[in-house]
Amino acid sequence: MKIHDWPTGPYPARVRIALAEKNMRARVQFVTVDLWKGEHKTPEFLAKNYSGTLPVLELDDGTFIAECTAITEYLDALDGEPTLTGRIARDKGVIHMMSKRAELELLDPISVYFHHATPGLGPDVEIYQNAEWGFRQRDKALRGMHYFDGILKRQPFVAGDVFSMADITVIGGLIFAGLVKLPVPAACEALQAWYAQMQQRPSVKNRVTMSKPIGA
Predict the structure, then answer these.
(1) Sign of the alpha-carbon torsion through 19, 24, 28, 32
(2) Considering the domain boundaries, does residue 209 fall inside one?
(3) From CA 33, how far away is CA 70, in angstroms rounded?
(4) Structural domains counted in the chain
């Protein structure tokens, strides 16, 4: 298998963390797609992923799977022992719900803020920007941080008592927040403490250096 991604990207981080948690790093090769050069918007890459986003999983039979949720669902089921997306129906539902909320309320709004209210990937890639919309989404992300802070005041992990893809999605959001210098509000003490713990997990600490990429 190959993973087409950008090593420090917050969305690719979700798949890299999942691979490490599943102890599957040795089963993939990483193909670097340079975001800053707009390589993810070229016709060659769009043939792999119509959305022009990273990461993309390429299977040995030539199948391409895009979208982090889909990729991690595939990887978690691959060994027949799902540990990140839930083993029973209830857990699957709650994990999927919380992971989607993490996308809608945190990760994706930060992405919009980055692409619209900051220089983003530069003028050659950011063809259109709407700063007002970007700042609105920044504020939405901050509200999302308060929401997850409330969740983590009541339980150790985002979807309950066990580390899951929901946690990985929030981690991706906070990685992105760090890249755009959007700090977690001081009042979100539970979220801050949880994230400090998550940053000590080997899968999170070593996500960039987990393997030697090809195509760099």
Answers:
(1) positive
(2) no
(3) 19
(4) 2
